[in-house]
Amino acid sequence: MKLGIIGGGEIGKKLLEIFLKMDSIKVEYISDINNDAPGIRMAEKKKIKTTSNMMEVVKDHSLDLILEVTGVSEVLSAIEDNKGENTELISSEGSYLVYNVIEEYNNFQNQLLTTVINHLNQVYQEIEDDSQNINKLLEQIQRITKNLNMLALNASIEAARADAKQGNGKGFAIVADEVKNLSSRSSQLVDNIEEINKDIRDLNGRISEVVEELKGNG
């Protein structure tokens, strides 16, 4: 949609800001008798046509829509008399309504975005805390596994001694084997938990990236 804005005051500027964010709308002109009006200055920075002669805008019959935001009845009448047949006209009252509706939507969108970001940050922190707790648990399991390995080694030594002296080291050998098996299972458990924890931290990293992307789009 191609449109022109008549009136480069604060409302004209705010409408321009809003429309510049919409891919489906192209602002072709903005007009104001004051060349230093805020909307005119913004349009010049954005390489949008500006003019102090509103009729230049009105007589461009390729425009789909003209927004009149001056609030001057004579301006509205002049636009109505000279605009193209297929060009729609929104008066200052309608333009203010458009602005308010879009502002309300943007405010709602920003509030929703803030809520989502806060929730994701909370989830991120909870996952981070859980990951740290898992690391502490892993350290404990690793210490237990180390102790089990020492017990298995001692049991094997005692089994060898008992067998060498009295030929009855079988009991120690069985204990040593069971301790070794337990130690092996503990080591495997540690590996599995570390892999899960890595996946959790990768997920948390992605959540952090999404939060930054959302902040950038806000």
Automatic annotation (TrEMBL):
Give the top-rank taxon of the lineage listed in the UniProt record for this protein: Bacteria
Is the keyword Chloroplast assigned to this protein?
Answer: no
Keywords assigned by UniProt, alphabetized: Coiled coil, Transducer
Q: Which SUPFAM superfamilies match?
A: Methyl-accepting chemotaxis protein (MCP) signaling domain (SSF58104), NAD(P)-binding Rossmann-fold domains (SSF51735)
**Methyl-accepting transducer domain spans which residues?**
91-218
Tell me the Gene Ontology biological-process terms attached to this UniProt entry.
Answer: signal transduction
Which Gene3D superfamilies does this one have?
6.10.250.3200, NAD(P)-binding Rossmann-like Domain
Coiled-coil boundaries = 120-154, 179-213
Q: Which GO terms describe its cellular component?
A: membrane
Q: What is this protein called?
A: Chemotaxis protein
